Amino acid sequence: MPATPARPQLLIFDVNETLLDLGKLQLAINQEFKSETAFKQWFALLLQYSLVDTVTGNYHNFGQIGDGALDMLAQGLGQPARPAPRKKELLALIAELPPHPDIIPGLTALQQAGFRMITLTNSPDATVQKQMAYAGLTGFFEQLLSIDALRRYKPHPDTYHSACERLRVAPAQAMLVAAHGWDTAGAQLAGLQAAFIARPGQQTYPLAPAPTLTGPTLPHIARQLLGK
Which helix (H) or strand (E) covers residue 118, if one does? Predict the structure, then answer.
């Protein structure tokens, strides 16, 4: 069994799918486009074109890209583009998502153990504030950070470094907690530790370093951090 890594001074949590269950949004998009794969296609487009914006310096916030991705999804499925009010209704659901069942127990254990915790999300500032309030998670976090001010999306190294600088913690003393292999890869390649929550359907990137910690739920990660 590998040695337990040094206790991180800061835990940086991804939000969408890591903390929050996207099931409500997934169901709505799949029903809207009458396809069981519509949500996965839309989310892949959202991530792909956030990276296009980052690489080209042509920044739009996550909501704007999500709106454009709905148009691209409709086109790809051979369907008409949805009216702006309907797209707004669908996208508004991202601020009304519950936490995964494991999240409050896991965050509670980590908070009681004295860990400093923040969020770092690709969603805009206003969105993450609404998300955390709706999910009842705000009180667990020292700060709710977004990449919006930086105008670069994760997994750009600057996103992780900026969060560490803001909290005055060296990258090696910080750990990203995420359910996305691209996110844990980005954090580790930026010099951070990473914990991967292996939610169903999620995989790590085999060409990146293996996550520092891996577990099926946040309590599993918490127990490893606490040496239990």
Answer: strand 116-121
